[in-house]
């Protein structure tokens, strides 16, 4: 492989990706200064405004916020040495598109527009692209979902669920996504395609919470909150900055199926992802 530029090198996907790229020349990007190692050169760059310095044939593994990517590519010359982009979007582009929450609709629309613009910029520069859409990423304590739930359980010993928590989930380990990036870069089947990448198990929200309890070595104590009570509680507390991210949309979301098909990824590049109930939470 040519030089690999990793944008999003400090998030959970980058955490697992960098050690797997030991045999390659890697340029890892962060807005913060970081010391170089034998294998990794860190580049302090703001993807929102700076130009990627690409001096040799390179591939970009991109898991930073997708809306920054089209203009980052647009700042490259038309004859760039960047040959390949493997970029993470999100299945939120589907699940939040028709949300009753305007903020969620904006997120979905930004992703949809960014995907379209990314493809256009790549086509203009003769760069091959692959777009990956996971749903619920976990793995090393850097996510805001599974880690939030685990920390809540560790602190309070129980977890509240709206209604019965029947909505289906497919949490995906960040290391499985890191391995997917490498397989994709090595497979010509994946050029100019999009893939929904799910975890290796589909389970209800309630079963997912139960698995987190078990992984923490605790007996599950899941308390069902009636949807109407939860909605009222949310309306009362969201004026506090700490809880401003909560919304009544969560009421419908928790009992909604968020499921996707990863068969094309399995077929094209032998995508494999682990079962959630096998997790060992070590954070
Ligand atoms: N988390 C999930 O459950 C989930 C679900 C579906 C899809 N995804 C997708 O998976 C990818 C990773 O998500 P994530 O939640 O793990 O990470 P994230 O919070 O979306 O990404 C943070 C990363 O982006 C970098 N970054 C952000 N703004 C930057 C800028 N202006 N310049 C340079 N670097 C910048 C950060 O680097 P520094 O802070 O070091 O500068 C950090 O490495 C994203 O594409 C996301 O849309 C995530």
Commentary on this structure:
The chain is of the alpha/beta class. The chain has one domain (3-278): NAD(P)-binding Rossmann-like Domain (Rossmann fold). 35% of the residues lie in helices and 19% in strands. The protein is built from ten helices and 13 strands. It has helices at 12-17, 69-74, 92-95, 102-125, 146-156, 174-185, 205-215, 227-237, 249-254, 263-269, and strands at residues 3-7, 26-30, 40-44, 58-62, 82-88, 128-134, 137-138, 159-162, 168-169, 172-173, 193-197, 203-204, 222-225. The protein has a seven-stranded parallel beta sheet, sandwiched between helices. Strands 7-10 form a two-stranded parallel ribbon. Strand 4, helix 2 and strand 5 form a beta-alpha-beta unit. The chain is globular and about 60 Å long. The relative contact order is 0.14. It binds NADP nicotinamide-adenine-dinucleotide phosphate (NAP). The site of NADP nicotinamide-adenine-dinucleotide phosphate has 28 residues, from helix 1 and strand 2.
Keywords:
283 residues, alpha/beta, 35% helix, Rossmann fold, seven-stranded parallel beta sheet, globular, binds NADP nicotinamide-adenine-dinucleotide phosphate
């Amino acid at each position: 492989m040519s030089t690999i530029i990793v944008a999003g090198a400090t998030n959970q996907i980058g955490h697992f990706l960098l050690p797997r790229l030991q045999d390659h020349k890697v340029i890892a990007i962060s807005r913060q200064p970081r010391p170089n190692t034998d294998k990794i050169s860190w580049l302090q760059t703001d993807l929102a405004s700076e130009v990627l310095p690409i001096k040799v044939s390179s591939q970009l593994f991109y898991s930073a916020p997708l809306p920054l990517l089209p203009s980052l590519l647009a700042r490259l010359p038309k004859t760039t040495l960047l040959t390949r982009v493997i970029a993470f979007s999100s299945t939120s582009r589907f699940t939040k598109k028709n949300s009753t929450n305007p903020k969620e609709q904006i997120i979905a629309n930004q992703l949809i527009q960014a995907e379209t613009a990314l493809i256009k910029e790549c086509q203009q520069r003769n760069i091959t692209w692959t777009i990956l859409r996971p749903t619920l990423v976990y793995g090393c304590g850097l996510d805001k979902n599974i880690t939030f739930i685990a920390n809540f359980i560790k602190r309070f010993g129980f977890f509240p669920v709206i209604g019965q928590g029947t909505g289906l989930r497919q949490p995906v380990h960040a290391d499985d996504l890191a391995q997917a990036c490498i397989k994709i870069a090595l497979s010509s089947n994946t050029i100019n395609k999009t893939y929904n990448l799910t975890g290796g198990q589909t389970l209800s929200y309630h079963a997912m919470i139960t698995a987190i309890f078990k992984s923490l070595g605790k007996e599950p104590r899941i308390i069902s909150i009636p949807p109407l009570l939860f909605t009222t509680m949310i309306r009362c507390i969201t004026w506090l900055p700490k809880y401003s991210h909560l919304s009544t949309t969560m009421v419908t979301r928790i009992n909604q199926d968020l499921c996707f098909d990863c068969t094309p990824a399995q077929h094209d590049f032998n995508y494999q992802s682990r079962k959630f109930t096998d997790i060992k939470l070590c954070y």
